[in-house]
Amino acid sequence: MNLKNWEVLPLNKEQAISIAQNHGLPSILAMLLQVRGFTKPEQINDLLGRSSEFADPFLLKDMDKAADRIRTALEEYEKIAIFGDYDADGVTSTSILYTYLEKNGADVMWYIPKREGEGYGMNIAAIDYLHEQGVKLIVTVDNGIASIKEIAHANSLGIDTVVTDHHRPHDILPEAVAVVDPYIPGNEGLEFRDYCGAAIAFKLVQAIESEFGDPEELINEYADLASIGIIGDIVPLLGENRSIVRTGLRMLVDSERAGIRSLIEKSGNTERRLTSTSVAFTIVPRINATGRMGDSDRAVRLLITDDPDEADDLSEAICNDNTERRNVEAQITESVIDSIENDDSIKYARVIVVGGKGWHHGVVGIVAARITERYGKPCMIIAENGNESKGSGRSVEGFNLFEAITYCDDLLIKYGGHPMAAGITLTPENISVFRDKINEYAAMHHPIMPAQRITVDMKLLPSALSPAIPESLSIMEPFGASNPSPLFGLYNMKLEGISPVGGGNHLRLTFSRGESTVTCMKFSMDEKSFPFVVGDVLDLAVTLESKLFKGSQTLTVQIKEMKISGQDMSELISSLRVYEKYKLHEGLTPREKAAMLPARDDFAELYRFLRASGWKAGLTSLLSRLSREGWSYAKLRLCLDVLVERKLIAETEYGEASEITVLPTQGKTDIFASPILSLFK
Fold first, then answer.
1. Which of 199, 264, 328, 450 is most buried, with most CB under 10 Å away?
2. pTM of this prediction?
3. What is the distance between the alpha carbons of residues 183 and 168, in angstroms, rounded to a whole number?
4. Rounded to an integer, what distance in angstroms lies between the CA atom of residue 271 and that of residue 262?
5. What is the DSSP-derived secondary structure letter of residue 362?
């Protein structure tokens, strides 16, 4: 279960009115800017695209050394190898730099390691191969900051290396000619440093061209590629990232690149207007998929080709990779959930760690993201293949996953990442030890694991909903990290109807409040796993989209999160954490025990309610129907555990919902003879 804290951003109406008047903006847009903290003229101008200045690339430490060394290689016609990565950021980084260097007459090649067999980053065998090819200079993009041994090996072979990366450095930096990374010491004073690999590659091109290049010409040449990398790597869409993506989205619509045109067409995107969201759901996953399932070389070839026939062949193969990726991902996700649900020590741990033999490690990162969203906890999903196991993890705000795996570095062959996502390589026999140790770190630093948070920009009355709202806010696009699609709160909405659509994979929900009726969509949820019932009064966090339908603008309301109106989410989460402590056999305080232990009347009320009609929904909805004082999530969950143990009820979980049925009994059952309750004596 993933319970999330809800927060509504505070609105300063006077300040919002001032923003609207001073900048000539609609009031709804001015309010959104104000609640998100964009109140200064320079912030507003940057966000709304009224300024597009690019910082001097040489503000990045070592950028001068990097540019000088590459210029020397160009002048002396030394063979250059671009060492990339297999995700969308790495592929676009490689394509940007390769296209630029080839255009300027370089003897250049690229090398992207195979995810299967080589894994992320530089490796000794690859360095030896590049040496055999006569390479004199390696330029890394989107990797290299952790390649201490590999770069030392390159040095021993007489190969220079320029590192360009954006991942967090370890304590020791590689001994390269230049190390360009916004997070290394010396870059603390940068006004903006939330670059991804593609943006750093673009800054490198800017630096090389600084003496004779036109910055405007460069952005118009490479923004399309860089924008795919920025969106794919989920870095903040602010500052220079925002300027690049804004330009890149315009370029992608009528792209001059045959590969991009073909990929957009074969992905089924027929819209004449691309957004960061549509790029994130069409272009990015397909480029990522070929690195996960196939060969990233063809993704680079797709992005640099001028041949329409080659582009069609490559994009079709890449789309096939994406279909395979979805199938494999679904199978592994199902297997991971089974492992979690069948082992309390994994399910209730602060950090979920699951390993599996034969899993395709190319998709474990996506699976990790799904598991974190489902259970609301940091997780690490590990593919066990041969003598080395490779894992990918995702985290929640407030838990630094990179620091957590660094604590376990004595168990790891290789690791890297940042606070919200990380990757590891370890031997299969160390997986269980790693699970224990990362949870040891979590228990020391986070006795109570932080919960995920839903941030509602502002509440709306259902009667105020119209297509004009998203239309007024469209000027704030592109939306993405640090400037997400606006999330609105519709509070105290009574659920009137539930209709499965899309073959039962999605739900159309009808709500009312007063005289207003609102129809909403809840995607990727079937009726069986829907956690509420008709009659529930809910708070909804929704996004709004305006679409043209039969000549008129229509409004689509999409539900992102729901909760019972009036329920204290922080109290629910706190109670859930107490229950998790109990399931992990950690000592409960006397106060926690007392709050969790049910009385006879608690059992009686719950059993009478279930006997009347059973239950098919979520436990928070069930909790709202119990009238006795003192009910909590932990107490309800413990009551259900005891009733199941005493064979009075049967419970089956379906995602966020539970189906509970009362079992036939003969004679009386002594509930307080329960071994579970004996633990509380």
1. 199
2. 0.88
3. 6
4. 14
5. T
**How far apart (Å, rounded) are the C-alpha atoms in residues 219 and 198?**
12
- CA–CA separation, 592 and 579 (whole Å): 9
Q: Residue 40 pLDDT more than 80? A: yes
Q: Specify the 3-state DSSP secondary structure of 491.
A: strand
Residue 391: count of CB within 10 angstroms of its CB: 28
Contact 393, 381 (CB under 8 A): yes
Helices in 3-137 by DSSP H: which ranges?
A: 13-23, 27-35, 41-47, 63-75, 88-103, 124-132
Long-range contacts of 385-390 (CB under 8 A, 24+ apart): 385/357, 385/358, 385/359, 385/361, 387/427, 387/428, 388/413, 388/425, 388/426, 388/427, 389/355, 389/425, 389/426, 389/427, 389/428, 389/431, 390/119, 390/361, 390/364, 390/423, 390/424, 390/425
Q: Tens digit of pLDDT for each residue in 105-146?
A: 999 999 999 887 787 889 999 999 999 999 999 999 999 999
| Greatest Cα-to-Cα distance within the chain, rounded to the nearest angstrom | 93
Query: What's the rounded Cα separation, in Å, for the pair 23 and 307?
Result: 46
**Where residue 268 falls among pLDDT bands split at 50, 70, 90?**
confident
Q: pLDDT tens for residues 355-367?
A: 999 999 889 999 9
Query: Strand (E) positions, 51-205?
Result: 79-83, 107-111, 137-141, 160-164, 178-180
In a 13 Å sphere around the CA of 560, the CA atoms on its Cβ side amount to 18
Amino acid (1-letter code) at residue 606: L
Instruction: Report d(CA 219, CA 226) in Å as an integer.
Output: 9
